[in-house]
Amino acid sequence: MSLQWEQVIVHSVDPVTLGQWWATALGWVVVHASDDEFEIRPAPDRLPGLDFVRIEETKKAKSRLHLDFRPDDQDAEVARLVAHGAQRVDIGQGEEASWVVLADPEGNEFCVLGQRPQ
Fold first, then answer.
1. CATH architecture for the domain at 7-55
2. Any idea which fold 66-118 has?
3. Where are the chain's structural domains?
4. pTM of the model
5. Residue 63: exposed, middle, or buried by beta-carbon count in 10 A (0-12, 13-18, 19+)?
6. Regarding beta strands 67-69 and 109-112, do their DSSP bridges make them parallel or antiparallel, or are they unpaired?
């Protein structure tokens, strides 16, 4: 048996706007766009991707799944993402956490990790 991870589905009230926000944040390319679905990937032929799919209800609770990103410079990346529209959120991580929790414009949490321990 062989499985290939193709994409993560993100439910969204506005998939085009949220998908474009993530495409810009990650520097990814759009591979499919319609009013109800917006898919992005690191490159047209690279997987996995993120597929934003319309859903009418807004987010109601902490996400059960979120993405972690490890940048070269955590402070600079957090500042860039906040300037791009992300917001810092507290999901109980505490003040001593080595990661920063942010949320995209629809409230989906993601983490910007600190430097990898060596």
1. Roll (3.10)
2. 2,3-Dihydroxybiphenyl 1,2-Dioxygenase; domain 1 (3.10.180)
3. 7-55, 66-118
4. 0.90
5. middle
6. parallel
Collapsed DSSP state (helix, strand, coil) of residue 26: helix
**pLDDT score at 52:** 97
Cβ proximity of 31 and 48 under 8 Å: no
Contact call for residues 64 and 56 (beta carbons, < 8 A): no
3-state secondary structure of 70: coil
Residue 112 CB coordination number (10 Å): 20
Distance (Å, whole) CA 75 – CA 9:
28
At 83 the three-state DSSP class reads: helix
Q: Confirm if 104 and 50 have CB atoms less than 8 A apart.
A: no
The residue to which tokens 């032929």 are assigned: 45
Q: What is the pLDDT of residues 32-56, one digit of tens each?
A: 999 999 999 999 999 999 999 999 9
Its sign, for the CA torsion 89, 90, 95, 98, is negative
